[in-house]
Amino acid sequence: MPAMQLRVGAFSAALAVLAATSSGALAQKKYDTGATDTEIKIGNIMPYSGPASAYGTIGRTEAAYFKKINAAGGINGRKINFISYDDAYSPPKAVEQARKLVESDEVLFIFNALGTPSNSAIHKYMNAKKVPQLFVATGATKWNDPKEFPWTMGWQPNYQSETQIYAKYLLKNKPDAKIAVLYQNDDYGKDYLKGLKDGLGAKAASMIVAEESFETTEPTIDSHIVKLKSSGADVFVDIATPKFAAQAIKKVAEIEWKPLHFLNNVSASVGSVIKPAGFQNAQDIISAAYLKDASDPQWDNDPGMKEFYAFLAKDFPEGDKLDQSTVVGYGVSQTLVQVLKQCGDNLTRENIMKQAANLQDFRTEVMLPGIKINTGPDDFAPISQLQLMRFKGERWNLFGDVISADVGG
Fold it and tell me: Which residues form the Leucine-binding protein domain (predicted)?
């Protein structure tokens, strides 16, 4: 009899171990809506049409990159189902598409939706729903506010950092500058303008001699450029999306205005802005970069850029290597893949945000040397470094050091 009791005891113990390991296995796999054993459903909103359609390249690059990831087996055995909709850079349309992605398509999160106005329109909705609004494709400073908006995170350097860097440059190299500013009349344009004024400090009032805002519904900004020239300014700060930035570069040349021209990074693409505006019209423009420029021969033998060129050749042959949006789409997709790898089998929305806020010295190799991605529970600004560059010939030339700008949310 004692032997029998022993066997029963051993059997019970074995059952207990089995139950523990089963629950352990179940505990390891955690899913929210949009994730399964085989799939991760990701939403995206892009301006494939409308005034900012040049940025549509970002969404197309992302789709091609995730297709490449899926062909190689996916992430932790799961394929990415990337659902991307057009909002034509219209905030009401962005709201409609976000609701569709969250409530109808039931995505796990929305990734890299583009535009400050569009993301602003869905900001409260995404946080109320507790659905990650991850790595938004806009540099507005407000995306770094983990306390008030824990479900929203930026990716690129913020706009205020960038114009503060231009302000520092002017104070040092051209302290008597007379500055004319062109800016898009929305949160994006105003954020850049605030950074410039903050950077100039007490001298902003005397140095900025003219400000002209424009609406994205205007067919041309030519009249604004003529007005800015008449202010007698010798520095032009150009805060515009690609279509209008190209128009500005052309018009400045046409009316033979010769200011020191600063162009915001979001329109520094050689392929979609500089080339259409004419290389001859863009000489000596200053901008800032955090990504390598595929038109720069110094990266021809760079291992990271070789991988990027191989991706274009094999997976995205219609992609233009000269279009900076292609490099952006590639770099931000690689960052997301890192986050999803870190998530392992815990694909809850909460863990997506937790891992996105736990990136330590991560680099996608299309970033400039010395620039790294770092995030934390109180730091939702992944990239906060930039380097100045000047346009010469048919490409940008980097100059100076990598500058760290730390502007809080």
Answer: 39-392
**Within this chain, do residues 258 and 400 fall inside the same structural domain, yes or no?**
yes
Query: What would the mean pLDDT of 288-294 be, rounded to a whole number?
Result: 94
Count helices and strands (H / E) in the chain.
13, 14
Query: How long a stretch of residues is the chain?
Result: 409
Q: Are residues 136 and 284 in the same domain?
A: no
Any idea which residue has 């796999």 for tokens? 29
Could you tell me the residue range of the domain that residue 89 belongs to? 39-156+298-378
pLDDT tens digits, 213-272: 999 999 999 999 999 999 999 999 999 999 999 999 999 999 999 999 999 999 999 999
Give whole-number Cα distances, 237 to 10, 110, 343, in Å.
Answer: 78, 32, 42
Tell me the Cα Rg of the chain. 24
- Distance, in Å, from the CA atom of 161 to the CA atom of 388, rounded to the nearest integer, reads 12
Tokens of 324: 């900076």
φ, ψ dihedrals at 191, nearest 5° = -65, -45
pLDDT level of residue 295 (50, 70, 90 thresholds): confident
Q: Is the dihedral angle over the CA atoms 122, 127, 133, 134 positive or is it negative? A: positive
Whole-structure pTM over 0.70, yes or no? yes
